[in-house]
């Protein structure tokens, strides 16, 4: 590993491990998503996640990270990110964001998605679709020679064209030997700013999109981020490498 402007460039060997980590994580999250249903608690979702993670011989990256109590962040409806698993029941009509990180052979991988519980209203389906699509709009810009903020700008432009708002207070990040590495990757801002992207950089790109205002606040538990206006929020994330052939999504489901 070497660094340029504090952004680490991964070796081929590191890329191979990160690729495996991403594949394992995507499989875990697919299984976890299938386990979601009406009537279970967010704490039970966390228990299932821990079992799935340990079964595959990898380590839950979030458990104990800055004293976070769960293996996964489970954020329901107005909860944006960092939802602490607990007694909250999932009900039909809810949307639930799962954010999962693992450590495989000392390397981190990070993914998030928002799922529907039972029958959800069309406006929520649209929110999920736009958030997911905005992630791919960002990933499309994760190319050798582009500027970092080309990713940010593509995400914001797409989200706002669809009349939703993009969260400012939480951003994506570099990833590798550490869960959070340089650079920070905002999901908003003008194009053509910041560092030039190089082959071997690996990013966790993660737009958080709100139905109402972009503003958020943190609950008294010190973790759970909610929308300031109580309207719903969605979150999608992939771990992505800047490769010579274009972006490579390690956590593709
Ligand atoms: Mg992340």
Q: Write down the CATH class.
A: Alpha Beta
Question: First CA to last CA: what distance?
Answer: 27 Å
Q: How many separate domains make up the residues?
A: 1
Identify the bound ligands: magnesium ion
Helical segment count: 4
Percent strand equals 25-35%
SSE order in H/E notation? Answer: EEHHEEEEEHHEEEEEEEEEE
The name of the CATH topology is Creatine Amidinohydrolase
- The helix-and-strand class reads alpha+beta
Q: Report the radius of gyration as a whole number of Å.
A: 17 Å
Biggest β-sheet, characterized? 5 strands, antiparallel
| Estimated helix fraction | 25-40%
| Number of DSSP-assigned strands | 17
The average pLDDT score comes to 97
Globular, elongated, flat, extended or rod-shaped: what is the shape? globular
- Strand arrangement, major sheet: 10-9-11-16-17
Uncertain spans? none
Features:
single chain, 253 residues, alpha+beta, Creatine Amidinohydrolase, 5-stranded antiparallel sheet, 4-stranded antiparallel sheet, 4 helices, 17 strands, binds magnesium ion
């Amino acid at each position: 590993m070497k660094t340029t402007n504090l952004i680490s460039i991964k070796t081929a060997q590191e890329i191979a491990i990160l690729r495996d980590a991403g594949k394992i994580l995507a499989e875990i999250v697919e299984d976890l998503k299938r386990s979601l249903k009406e009537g279970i608690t967010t704490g039970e979702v966390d228990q299932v996640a821990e079992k799935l993670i340990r079964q595959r011989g990898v380590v839950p990256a979030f458990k104990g990270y800055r004293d976070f109590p769960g293996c996964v962040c489970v954020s329901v409806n107005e909860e944006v990110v960092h939802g602490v698993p607990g007694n909250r029941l999932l009900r039909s009509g809810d949307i639930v964001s799962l954010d999962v990180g693992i450590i495989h052979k000392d390397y981190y991988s990070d993914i998030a998605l928002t799922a529907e519980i039972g029958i959800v209203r069309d406006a929520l389906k649209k929110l999920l679709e736009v958030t997911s699509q905005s992630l791919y709009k960002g990933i499309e810009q994760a190319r050798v020679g582009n500027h970092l903020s080309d990713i940010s700008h593509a995400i914001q432009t797409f989200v706002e064209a669809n009349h939703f708002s993009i969260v400012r207070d939480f951003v994506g990040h570099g990833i590798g030997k550490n869960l959070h590495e340089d650079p920070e990757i905002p999901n908003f801002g003008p194009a053509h700013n910041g560092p030039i992207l190089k082959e071997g950089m690996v990013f966790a790109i993660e737009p958080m999109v709100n139905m109402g205002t972009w503003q958020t606040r943190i609950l008294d538990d010190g973790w759970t981020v909610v929308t300031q206006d109580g309207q719903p929020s969605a979150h999608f994330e992939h771990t992505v490498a800047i490769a010579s052939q274009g972006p490579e999504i390690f956590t593709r489901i």
